C-alpha cells in the first residue's frame, strides 16, 4: 500500500477507532463489524451513476440478512444463483418479482424451484441450457449471456461462462425454439477490473448484436444486463463508479429504449464490513519480523487466496486518537492462524511496531470474504456484529 493511500485511509478511519475498541472489549477478536448504513450509501451512489438502471444486488457477495434487508428497503432488486439464495430472500419476505436467476448452468430442479418461488427471468449461455426451458411457462424470459474476455479483471468470468458473441444468434434461435421469451443479452466484464474500457467495448458489441438479431431473426431485444464487476479501491485507487457510469452513458446515448439491468456485488458491500483481528504471537525468522494474527486466508481473508484481492491492513493504534503523524513503519509478514505455510495475509508489508494483543484493522472486508471462508484447523468462523459508528 503506498503512503498516500495509507494516509487517506488513516484519515477516513480515524473517527471509528473508539467504536471498534468498545466492540473488541465486548466481543473479542477476530470480529467482523458490519455497518448497514454503508450498504445503503453505496447503493445510492450506484443509482446516481448508473442512471436509469434497475439494480439487482448479487447476493453471493455477502448474503447477510442485515445487507439484504437494507437493500430491500432501498428498493433494490436481487441477483440469485442458487436455490439457497432464492429461499433466503423468500424467508426475508423479498418479492420474487424483484429477483433474477443468473446462473448460466443449472439443474432443471433449480429452475423448477426458482419458478415455483415466482422468478421469471433466467440466463442461458449454451444450447443445452436453452433446451432445459422446453415445455416450461411461456412467460419465462431469457437473457443470453455473452462472454467478453477481460485480462485486467481479478476474476475474468468469461473463461467459465458466456457464449462467444459470434454464436449468440444461434443461441437466440434455441431460446425461441424452446418456446420461452427472448428478453435480451447479459454479460459480466469480470470482477474488480482496473479499467472502464471493457464496459464500453462489451456494451458497444452488445448493442450491435441487438441490431443484428433484429435484422436476421426479426426479434427485438428489450433488455441489456451489464452484470457486475464495478471496482473497489482496496490498497490501490481504482476507477470510480462515476467513470464507469460515464462510459456507459456515452455508449448508450440519451435515446435508447432498453430496460437496463446491472448485478453489482462487490461495489455494494466491500465497504460495509471491517475486520478487527489481533496479534497472537511474533517471531523473527531469517532476519524478518513475523506477526501471527487470529484471522487469515482460511477465514475472513479468503479473498486474498480466492481472488488475489489485497485489503488494506492498518494498526488500530494508527487510527486512534488525534495524532496525525505517520508512525515509523517496518516491513513485516502478517500470517494467519492455521498451520498451513500458505496462510500468509501479507508479506513485506509496512506496519508500525506491534506487540501481542495489539489490534489490526482491515476495512473493505465485505465482499467475498466471510462467505468463502472455511473452517480449516477447526477454527470457528469469524462472528459478524452489526453495528454503526455513532
Ligand atoms: C452472474 C454474476 N453477476 C454478478 C456478479 C457480481 O459481480 P461483482 O461482485 O464483481 O459486482 C457475479 C460475480 O461473480 C456474477 O457471477
TrEMBL record:
Its cofactor is pyridoxal 5'-phosphate. This is ornithine decarboxylase. Residues 39-270 form the Orn/DAP/Arg decarboxylase 2 N-terminal domain. One of its GO terms (cellular component) is cytoplasm. GO terms for molecular function: ornithine decarboxylase activity. The active site is at residue 339. Gene3D superfamilies: Alanine racemase, Lyase, Ornithine Decarboxylase, Chain A, domain 1. Its EC number is 4.1.1.17. The keyword Lyase applies. It holds the Pfam family Orn_Arg_deC_N. Belongs to the Orn/Lys/Arg decarboxylase class-II family. It catalyses: L-ornithine + H(+) = putrescine + CO2. Pathway: Amine and polyamine biosynthesis; putrescine biosynthesis via L-ornithine pathway; putrescine from L-ornithine: step 1/1. Keywords: Decarboxylase, Lyase, Pyridoxal phosphate. The modification N6-(pyridoxal phosphate)lysine is found at residue 60. GO terms for biological process: putrescine biosynthetic process from arginine, via ornithine.
